[in-house]
Write a structure and sequence with these properties.
Helix content: over 70%
Number of strands: 0
Strand content: under 5%
Number of domains: 1
Mean pLDDT: 91
Largest sheet: none
Low-confidence stretches: none
Distance between the termini: 14 Å
Structural class: mainly alpha
Length: about 45
């Protein structure tokens, strides 16, 4: 499940031409959180 989420969030972000920082701002989280999601380090 974790790998599926990390691959999807990265793919969808890139398809929409968003940076990790842009996505983080939209979601109200830090860009470090987005980075961790994409690397599969954390889901929270």
């Amino acid at each position: 499940m974790n790998i599926f989420f990390s691959e999807n969030i990265r793919r969808l972000r890139k398809e929409r031409e968003l940076t990790q920082e842009n996505l983080a701002d939209f979601l109200g989280v830090s860009f470090q959180a987005v980075s961790k999601w994409e690397r599969g380090v954390s889901l929270s």
